[in-house]
Amino acid sequence: MKPDILLTNIGQIATVAGHSENPKTGEELGELSIIENGAIAITEGIIVAVGTNAEVLSQITQMPELPSIEFPNMLATPGFIDSHTHLAFGGSREKDFAMKLEGKTYLEILEAGGGILNTLRSTRKATQGELCSNAFSYAESMLSMGTTTIEAKSGYGLDTENEVKMLRAIEELRPKIPVDLVSTFLGAHAIPPEFEGRTDNYVDLIINEMIPAVAESKLAEFCDVFCEKGVFSVEQSRHILRAAKMSGMKLKVHADEIVQLGGAELAAELGAVSADHLLMASDDGLEAMKKAGTIATLLPTTAFSLNANYADARKMIDMGLSVALATDFNPNCANESLFFTIALACYKMKMKPREALSAVTINAAHAINRGKTHGSIEVGKRADILILDCPNPEYLTWRFGANLVHTVITNGQVVHTKLGP
User: Fold this and answer.
1) Exposure winner among 16, 313, 361, 416, fewest CB in 10 A?
2) pLDDT of 109
3) 56 lies in a domain?
4) Residue 25 lies in a domain
5) Is residue 408 within 8 Å of 28, Cβ to Cβ?
6) Does residue 272 belong to any structural domain of this protein?
């Protein structure tokens, strides 16, 4: 075997192997299948060998053109996967934050021209190219912090023209950055001002016009709905998600973030790939998700930015529910770092460092239907690999304010590396 790239003398490799068919649950979440003094061989963007240094070198019949790269005392992990982001939008919301610090309520900020309506106006005003440029900046920052796959939602256009524009901006971004992008249609993110008091009419627009337009152009793999009191009811959400499923999209749900409405139960009923947020989910809803195989995607930085309670990750893990973590990067929670997300999950949601690493790799891969190709360092999988400047997984949460990335490899190519040793 003559690989294209050979990584050798790696202090530890957290392969996270063995769960390509199904996500990790329970005690499995803390099992990382670590190899000491390891090596990885890559050919044409695919991992072709992984094991101890001696095991991998014994399979090499001809050394690659590029010299092998050594990483002593460092940790190799799968590339981080951010399975819930709102990557493309216009404008910014720092003024909202300043008002929040002054004690203004959400409604007061909204009345002052802030909040989601501010982002809606900026997004509708922006060109597709401007949205793509903004998204590129955010995605490049995420990549520098180890995120190699990003789920990207629409949801700030809230009419057919602008929702399609947002999704086309994500398509335009794909060839411009070495990150794997997964598109999600979120037309049911809020009620636009022109439909105030007429939510059912807006639901009809989503079902009869938006979903067909998105599906016909194949612009989104998933459809998501913000199922929440004062936004979309369980019944309205059910109608939208069923229509999306009939059009060929897989399902996600913003569920039970603010009140216990039944979003978790709905996600389980419809076979959603994931239900996200879940701060207020009922025990019955979580049990239904467990039985349905719906992944719980938890977003601790959202709770941090809202100064709200955190989802009960410990309970979910102990009951055997599959748990993933994501940033929820959006105009109201501008966190691009899964390192920070991991730290909050451990400090505030009682997850263990190894559980959190599984939650941003293999379980996050399953949360976007990529478990068979992404999320672990195994032969036959896509070579998305991080080399972290740390000796073991526990170190990730000890240095919680640092970017520990030394080298990022996406699809078998070195796309980012730290200068110096």
Assistant:
1) 416
2) 81
3) yes
4) yes
5) no
6) no
